[in-house]
Amino acid sequence: MASRRVWLFLGGVLVAVAASVVTYDTTAGNVLYFATYAVLCAVAWRAVARTAPGPRRRLWALVAVAQTLWLTGDVIEIVYYYLSSVPPVGLADAFWLAGYPVLAVALTRMAARRAPGRMRAAVLDGLTLAVAAALASWQFLIQPILGAGYSPAETVVPALYPVADIVLLTAVLFIALSPGDRRAPTRLLLAAVTLYLLIDVGYNVLPEFLDYAIVARIGPLIMLGNALIIAAGLHPDRAELTLPGHQMNVLHPSRVLFLGLAFLTAPTLSVVQSGLHGNAVMALVATALSTAFVLSRFTIAVREQEKAQAQLAFQARHDPLTGLANRAVLTAELDRVTSGPVAVLYLDLDGFKGVNDEFGHEAGDLVLTTVAERLSGAVRGTDLVVRLGGDEFVLLCPGLPEAEAIGLAERVLDEVARPIVFRGVTLDLGASVGIAAYGPDEVAADGDMLRTADHAMYQAKRQGRGRWVLAGSR
Questions:
Q1: Which of left, alpha, beta for 110 (phi over 0: left; psi -120 to 50: alpha)?
Q2: Which among 4, 6, 29, 355 is least surrounded, fewest beta carbons within 10 Å?
Q3: For 330-368, how does the pLDDT look when each residue is reduced to its tens digit (9 = 90+)?
Q4: Transmembrane region positions (predicted)?
């Protein structure tokens, strides 16, 4: 689904949710609520169906299962509402609670797939923050329920919701703290889980200040959270959630701040519970200072390590002569292309061997670096310029229609043919370009795109230097 249609989908859901809040606890409101929820579940399963079979589809299927479980719980409760009375604890709670671990498994597996072998830091930091949140949840949400004198079922089941929230929080922290791209799909996913947590906390806290009839109206907001997750699955960049990302795991200042707050959670809660007497306050201040010093030293050490890792990562992903991306980067980016339009231009220099033979490798290096600069200047900021090796280059252009790909090929031929002067001698060079262009409804495997463009390039070379050939997309 195109990005614009995703935002239109969210806008429509937002209107329906607002109407459900206004008409809450009326027959018309119930009809609107369940009609909207049913549509959301149908769209979630549609997102599963349009995902290629394999692990990615299974992950999105888990997301759809979680949505369906929550909807089933709502259906059971509304049946109770109209046929008898809604019990404090019942079968609906089983379906609602079951949705949390299912969604948490999906999120955890997404984090593992987007950062394979690089999850250790995210897991440790996520668990640190989750333990702090669990401690606060225990003191303010769970413990008051346990001591309220309810029946065993009415005590245990409500206490399970904060536990489920912590499980979901832990899973989303794994995604938030793991290395990888963070475009719209990731932000939509994080916004959805944040909204879920705020709603559940609101159900537990707001009744202390507001009438429950008012608090109950926040219920339809859950559908907005569901819509945010579904929108992430429909977004054209959704692959960033389930494919390895190239972004390094950099220690953001906010991460250090949150870790510091997590370390101070236990002593702060102890002071609040025991009272703000002098010794307790001094101990808390000393703990805060020690934590600040330790985290500062930790940050300095991590920054030094990050610089070394960044240099090694750049060397592993870039051509040492031209600074362009290498074949490994191209392979990864081709994996991320799930739909068109997209164009691949395969470029081979004409006359390069003669330059190397006559003037030496110094002249050849000058040609390659000059061509690399010209190609980088000819493309858009979203395009990828790659040196495969020797005198072969590839341009990967997502979102580029066929007509514009042809125009780009003509500009590339003009740029490469411009004079290159080496020690007062003008080097005579050209290029042959093969184009593989795919439309909005066409999808090709990553290797097929490159092979098709390569084959078209050889056709251009056979026709004579300075030519481009457009291959079919099939």
A1: alpha
A2: 4
A3: 988 887 776 678 899 999 999 898 888 888 989 999 999
A4: 28-48, 60-82, 94-112, 124-146, 158-176, 188-206, 212-235, 256-274, 280-300
